[in-house]
Amino acid sequence: GATIGIIGGGQLGRMSAAAAARLGFHVHVYATHADCPASEVARHVSIGAYDDAEALRAFASRVDVVTFEFENVSAAGLAVLEELRVVRPSRDILEVSQDRIIEKTRLSEIGVALAPWRPVRNRKELDAAVEALGHHLILKTTRLGYDGKGQFRVLSADDLTALPAELPYPLVAEGVIAFDRELSVMVARGTDGTTRCFDVTQNIHRNGILDLSLAPAPIPSELADRATRLATRVADGLGLVGIMGVEMFVDAEGALLVNEIAPRPHNSAHWTMNACLVDQFEMHIRAVAGLPLPPATRHSDAAMKNLIGPDDMTLCDMIFRTPGQSLHLYGKAEARPGRKMGHVNIIFPRGSLPGRVGLAAALGPLADFDPEDGSENF
Ligand code: ATP
Ligand code: MG
Ligand code: MG
């Protein structure tokens, strides 16, 4: 059989590798550590840095097609890969997703709305950004941020004075959106340009980290249709081949503002593993392998809870004993605080995703929200 090469050995690589193996492919992973989550599933693991052109060249020469679970391969590394093999998604899209300034510029060109933003490459541009956006902004490193790392909130003049003298430029400054809710759409696009969108997901973050995803998002169909069209437009606009998560805010007026894109499987679509016949990982592998893309049909409703750090890991015994819950662990040895250790999908018959009170009951000790508190909108 053909060999799928996956750059990155984390949980997204592990679950992509499992889907590829199910489809009869060999899997060769490129990772920085031999004992990574994907090593349990892949036939081969090559070890190297993401900027090691020679090691990447050796890896590429041993696979038939290259894809990613980790976006931050160096430009030189990407060039080497693309020289040797078909790379899906393309180097162009990877480079867009690696840099928030390029990302926002391209998304604007495609014609989607964003939070107001300014590039901040020095103190002068920071002052200009505060002038333009006011004292209500988030500074984000342009590269390598995830789970809210590399972000500084500036919500007052005092916060601005309290910023460290040496900021990790370049940054972007974004106006803080008083969003009504956060949504994401997982869109797959095949080699023939066919697009398939999984149902819109609503995401609830805690400390900048995804905590809970609800599918389908409890929103009017008109809003869901707009979110789906938006994600399709971005996928077409970037010429995607593969899968991509599009994160967005719904603002107070009901307008959709794109937050960021991730051209790879996405944490907010892990519910597809138990609520869809073909999940995001199989869809991803199919797109990368040039196979037909089936409709992204959802047969059940789902809530996905991330298991983060040592505290959430204590819930595993309970999850194992609870019907209707499917546990996915990533095989990480050390449960550091803030580290994604696994997730649990709580499955409901289609059309019966409960409201806030019912969800609190169904989630039990997994939930840490107050069911009577209506401030969270679901
Ligand atoms: P990840 O890649 O893990 O999704 P990240 O580090 O790239 O995260 P963002 O997605 O940019 O970070 O931000 C994390 C969360 O912070 C968002 O999901 C949202 O809840 C909040 N956030 C980010 N930007 C804004 C904004 N402009 N206004 C309001 N909230 C924001
Ligand atoms: Mg991100
Ligand atoms: Mg994000």
Describe this structure in words.
Helices cover 31% and strands 28% of the residues. It has 378 residues and is an alpha+beta fold. It folds into 3 domains: 3-87, Rossmann fold; 116-175, Dna Ligase, domain 1, CATH 3.30.1490.20; 181-366, 2-Layer Sandwich (D-amino Acid Aminotransferase, Chain A, domain 1). Strands 10, 11, 12, 13, 14, 15, 16, 17 and 18 form a 9-stranded antiparallel sheet that branches. A 5-stranded parallel sheet has the order 3-2-1-4-5, with helices on both faces. The termini are far apart. The relative contact order is 0.12. The model has no long low-confidence stretch (mean pLDDT 96). One magnesium ion is lined by residues 247, 259-260.
Bound molecules: adenosine-5'-triphosphate, magnesium ion
Q: Which structural class should the secondary elements be placed in? A: alpha+beta
CATH superfamily of the largest domain: ATP-grasp fold, B domain
Q: Specify the overall morphology.
A: globular
CATH class of the largest domain reads Alpha Beta
How much helicity do the residues have? 25-40%
Major pleated sheet = 9 strands, antiparallel
Q: What is the number of domains?
A: 3
CATH architecture identity of the largest domain: 2-Layer Sandwich
* Radius of gyration, in angstroms, nearest whole number: 20 Å
Q: In total, how many beta strands?
A: 18
CATH third-tier fold name of the largest domain? D-amino Acid Aminotransferase, Chain A, domain 1
Poorly predicted runs of 5 or more residues: none
N→C terminal distance: 45 Å
Number of helices: 13
Average pLDDT metric: 96
As a percent range, the share of strand residues is 25-35%
